[in-house]
Design a protein that fits this description.
- This protein is α/β, with parallel strands linked by helices and about 375 residues long.
- It has 14 helices and 14 strands.
- It has a 7-stranded mixed sheet with strand order 2-10-9-8-5-3-4, with helices on both faces. The protein has a 3-stranded antiparallel sheet with strand order 11-14-13, covered by helices on one side. A two-stranded parallel sheet has the order 1-12.
- Helix 11 packs parallel to helix 13, helix 11 runs antiparallel to helix 14 and helix 12 packs across helix 13.
- The longest helix has 21 residues.
- The model has no long low-confidence stretch (mean pLDDT about 95).
- Bound molecules: pyridoxal-5'-phosphate.
């Protein structure tokens, strides 16, 4: 135990509000009871609100990767052709999952600091009329890039046999994701992100078009068989033992989101992201994601020349109690990432920028001390609550 105050500024897991923590500390209840059925009913209703859909939203006791795998095994057959777009670690994972199940992957690979191109997807769809799915990571956590899922979904409106699968694991609750209006077929998230819960739950929205794909799928599946989950959900149940505690906490978190209003939740994230970007740029640092594709969940930043980002991350965590994350894979020690997805407010950003400045001073980086904090404050003064 230590009294050092800690700040979790990562893009998952994210901080959990105390109302949610208190709920999850209550004694466990049995899942085959009217109380739990009411909890499932309420979670279903509020998840539909957050996903902006009237379709089914299924809940699984799994991390986000389980939802990704579930989408592939339910929607396709071995040998099906799919387009996988990837500009980061999670797009790479989508490709691996598709290959694991014997899909024929058309690989649209980009640099991590680039956005997926709608024109490229259109060209591949034209060249492959047999294509059954397009898989897109909406908010790429490894790079902070926001991909154009709405525009890609538009390409599929007249293709009844081709669905769009959207990994919105760091999108839901941070950026706009209008499942029905945009025509998204499968949209997934994980509990440890914008839903402000501990890790361990995933949620997947499934459109009618996606259910038709499910009907023809022959890939073997058991736990992640969506049809079993849909059948149970109709009776406000889950087919297997659910993550009872997390579902109860989810209802509290969803109530908080509903109270704030989904548009306001998204606007708050946009403001936090803008303040973070202004703050780091005022320190003379360069943003990683391209200007046309910056999401509001996480801000990746190039580390200054000669300073491995791991050193910044280490000083901030060990000496100032602020946990941010290093880059992943090739970008390890080249970039650092500040998460602001979920239960965050102005002073989380101010605190983080202050800790970043203190770490940079100690690492010998030359800049105007205080400039980052001042720039972020200015964004909040000018654009935030007056
Ligand atoms: C965009 C994205 N997709 C997929 C995943 C995988 O989710 P999990 O780690 O919960 O399995 C993550 C987790 O960080 C993510 O950020």
């Amino acid at each position: 135990m230590s009294l050092k105050k800690r700040y979790l500024m990562t893009p998952g897991p994210t901080p959990v509000p105390s109302e949610v923590l208190l709920k999850t500390a209550e004694p466990i209840i049995h899942h085959r009871t009217p109380e739990f059925e009411a909890a499932i009913k309420s979670a279903e209703k509020n998840l539909k609100y957050v996903f902006e859909t009237t379709g089914d939203v299924l809940l699984f006791a799994s991390s986000g990767t389980g939802a990704m795998e579930g989408a592939i095994v339910n929607c396709f057959c071995a040998g099906d052709t799919v387009i996988v777009t990837r500009n980061g670690k999670f797009g790479d994972r989508q490709k691996l999952i598709c290959q694991t199940y014997g899909l024929n992957v058309i690989d649209l690979e980009y640099e991590w600091y680039e956005r997926v191109s709608v024109d490229d997807v259109a060209r591949e769809l034209e060249a492959h009329p047999e294509c059954r799915g397009v898989i897109v990571t909406q908010s790429e956590t490894s790079s902070g890039v926001l991909n154009p899922v709405r525009e890609i979904a538009d390409l599929l409106r007249d293709r009844p046999d081709t669905i769009i699968i959207v990994d919105s694991i760091t999108g839901i609750g941070a950026v706009e994701c209008k499942t029905d209006e945009w025509g998204l077929d499968v949209v997934m998230t994980g509990s440890q992100k914008g839903l402000m819960l501990p890790p361990g739950l995933s949620a997947v929205a499934v459109s009618e078009k996606a259910w038709r794909a499910v009907e023809r799928s022959t890939i073997p599946k058991f736990y992640f068989d969506w049809k079993k989950h849909r059948k149970a959900l109709k009776e406000s149940m889950t087919p297997y033992t659910p993550a009872v505690t997390l579902v109860l906490g989810l209802n509290v978190a969803l109530d908080l989101m509903r109270e704030e209003g989904i548009e306001n939740v998204i606007a708050r994230h946009a403001l936090l992201a803008e303040a973070t970007r202004s703050g780091v740029e005022a320190l003379g640092l360069k943003l990683f994601a391209p200007p046309e594709g910056r999401g509001s969940a996480v801000t990746p930043v190039w580390s200054p020349e000669g300073i491995p980002s791991g050193q910044i991350v280490k000083i901030m965590k060990n000496d100032y109690g602020v946990t941010i994350t290093n880059g992943q894979d090739f970008y390890k020690d080249k970039i650092f990432r500040i998460g602001h997805l979920g239960y965050f407010g102005e002073f989380d950003i101010i605190t983080t920028l202050a800790a970043l400045e203190m770490a940079l001073v100690r690492l010998g980086y030359d800049f105007e001390q205080g400039a980052g904090v001042r720039a972020a404050e200015q964004v909040f003064i000018e654009r935030g609550n007056k």
